[in-house]
Amino acid sequence: MIKTLLYIVLTFPMILQAQEMKTTVKEMDNAFFKQDPYWRGADGAATVALDSGKVLWLFSDTFIDQSGSGKRTKSKFMIRNSIAIQYSDSANAKLNFFYKGSSRKPDDFFRIPGKNWFWTGHGRMLKDKLLIFLMEQTATSTGMGFESVDWYLAIIDNPNDSPADWKINYSKGPETFGVIVGSSAVLSDENYLYAFGVKEPATHETYLLRFEIRKIINGDLSSPEWWVNNTWSQTLTEEPKLSSLFIGQTEFSVHYDPKLRQFIQIQTFGFGKASLGYRLADQLTGPWSEPVMFFTPVLKDEKEFVYTANAHPEIRSNEILVTYNINNGDFGKLLNNEDIYFPKIIKVSTEKVR
Hints:
With 354 residues, the chain is mainly beta. The chain is built from 2 helices and 25 strands.
């Protein structure tokens, strides 16, 4: 059910050709995510188009109610990632959730031995294989209590089977100077897979790398090319600081919008009471426009915060479907408030005035 309708008229900055834009935002009911009595909320929420109109949802920290009562308060702990399959690309089609172990004893869907864990980035179907980028995390005694330390690629050879039967091969990424490749948008053309990544921890300079498809589908990540000084380069010995595309977030989306005939990048801006905004570019490599804010979610508690905005062009809609998450720094309030920590949904319509 549509809750509100907001009209904003925006003038886009001169980095691109000056143009007037009209953006319409509709807040949508997110009961779509709340139907499973065991899966009781997660963040992340990136999507990948699969075969036969199916859509893969990728989530990070996830609450599982082992009792199946449909109450987050019954969750004894979080698992670090989970997935869902949407068996139709129509909006609000049912989600089937998957994680390892069982509902009584759940475990991370993606994992390798050791104390570190994975949060999900983005992914792509290539030549009958499913490629998922993963962010390796480690616990710290300072800051937010975690830190991104590396990135991996998970390759699934049988993505048309049930996820319970997926054969997953993990490849660790090469040295990328603290840039967590694939934490954000992943796209492809006939020859290359393009992966955005940001500098971690916390500085979030955004870079674009590409991999030859014939190599990456076999787990060969050894020679990525970076977009540096307006060209593609393989011979890097340090972070190319002057070639950052923009300051992003750990997670964001990029897709080609046929109405605008441009690429659109969507992310959150700020921390806490953050806003959602977009940039535009004629090419993945930029130049990217300055950001335009188009929506600021209403928060109901002083410790709530907004993050992980992603667009979902894989789902059929006349508008751009966008999700974001609201969390709470008070864990007790997070457990007890099921109005938050299920991805929120908005529909965004952006068009050129002239």
